[in-house]
């Protein structure tokens, strides 16, 4: 799926005094031209460490006023979140991007965070932590880096181990750019050391004066023999990583058009992420409008799924939490009506066991206050505006959003960026692969209709994910959830934040609160249930034994029922659709032994070519869905996926089977 010309609508507001943003256009164009020349699209530039904020600002300013032939992907590696402060302060005119950077900075969450600006023409992947460790966790991609940039203060860190990690992810013709200022010039011996390292790893070494900003000069380059050796070493490093991660196939999409089945948050956000890359799409939805299934609730809570262990699950949800805020804020800034309120979320235990687990979570590590902070009952009551009376965890950046409006806005924005066709009232009944293309059979009104061919097909259709023979065996289950709508009255009117315990309760919007939800596996109907309505009431009254719970009125029998798909490990499914039949056939000849474990570890797991999965978002789909969609879009387009290999392993749809097979355990 190649990238095409990107349409740029600037998201950057000029300062109130209308002061023009200055940019040395000719110098920035020399960098852009170098990236076009040396790398496959999109353009990829790595910036190591703080000290180059002025360069990033110049790039922002350039993109704000100059259409690009391809997106620019910046990767910014910093040791700690506070290093973002100077960049955010310098780039104040770009208020949407600055808001995103501020969220990442105050949250102090390690790992990779994607920031998107200018309708996808720019993305910044902020990598927080040790640079070499972050690089080791990045997977090889079809698209590679054209250049890496170091400031004077960061250049001495470029030793051989770091340089080889850069080389693994780079074009054969890539450069290392030393951005130098008069006050921080390097000694002759240090420049010689850098020349030796870069030549050995196959890089050209360039110097770029920053004060004043001027053209780059070549300091050194590898000779033909050294370059040939470096190319072979790079290939070996790439192969080595591919072998250790073969069980988690990350195959990109086939060039051509793509069909998405589904009409909820997952499919809407995926349509937007692909459209930002200029991809042509056809979306099929069984309902007459987006967000009618699990995404149809009036209010859905947004808050992270934290665990005591600092593992991939918690990391993914933290990064997804910040990315969801970013998507909502950007779409609202673009003029879309999305009812939401980042009013914070209070989470409390509903019994001794759950209270003990929450205490373990909040004390397991030093969370930044912007992510999670412990509160006494009195503190929680003051924030909520009503009596809570028990200890709580507070998520200041959390809140609620209308999922249907978010989905609709994402799809509408996608249509402004690329060729997007939507088929509503179209129930897909079967999918079929013929002649390396995908075809869809669907019920449209009273007749069957065929669609296709499509080069790629994404199943993002919620509870219907397992309706097809290719996906029937996926280890995922549907859980019915009834959300009750209760009138806002008396003390309930004072509620100012989302409450989460045995169930959840939102602040009032349009004179109604949402509370629930029930949780019933494999439901046989989606009818209103009086029993579940009373269960929702009981959850509130047993979680918060306070007088205001008597104001919860369910007598109007107003509710909404949906089905969310849930995995056993609470992580979504994102990636290539596994070929279960092929896995089973191979398993018959590769029984659970030590040698079979090595086979599964180093052999690409079978997949259905051109078929992708995006589902299993569970009860926190608003937190996980937008980021999972962005990761899948990056994979489909052959880009460097903005997350770590452990998180990709966590999300892969084949993980339940592969976890056993790569350990030499029995599959059945």
Automatic annotation (TrEMBL):
Highest taxon, organism lineage: Bacteria
Keywords carried by this UniProt record: Cytoplasm, FAD, Flavoprotein, Methyltransferase, Multifunctional enzyme, Oxidoreductase, S-adenosyl-L-methionine, Transferase, tRNA processing
SUPFAM superfamilies: FAD/NAD(P)-binding domain
Transmembrane segments: none
InterPro entries: FAD-dep_OxRdtase, FAD/NAD-bd_sf, SAM-dependent_MTases_sf, tRNA_MAMT_biosynth_bifunc_MnmC, tRNA_S-uridine_synth_MnmC_C
Localization per Swiss-Prot or TrEMBL: Cytoplasm
Gene3D superfamilies: D-Amino Acid Oxidase, subunit A, domain 2 (3.30.9.10), FAD/NAD(P)-binding domain (3.50.50.60), Vaccinia Virus protein VP39 (3.40.50.150)
Stretches for region FAD-dependent cmnm(5)s(2)U34 oxidoreductase: 261-668
Cofactor(s), names only, from the UniProt record: FAD
PANTHER family documented for this protein: SARCOSINE DEHYDROGENASE-RELATED, TRNA 5-METHYLAMINOMETHYL-2-THIOURIDINE BIOSYNTHESIS BIFUNCTIONAL PROTEIN MNMC
Stated role: Catalyzes the last two steps in the biosynthesis of 5-methylaminomethyl-2-thiouridine (mnm(5)s(2)U) at the wobble position (U34) in tRNA. Catalyzes the FAD-dependent demodification of cmnm(5)s(2)U34 to nm(5)s(2)U34, followed by the transfer of a methyl group from S-adenosyl-L-methionine to nm(5)s(2)U34, to form mnm(5)s(2)U34.
Name of this protein: tRNA 5-methylaminomethyl-2-thiouridine biosynthesis bifunctional protein MnmC
This protein's encoding gene: mnmC
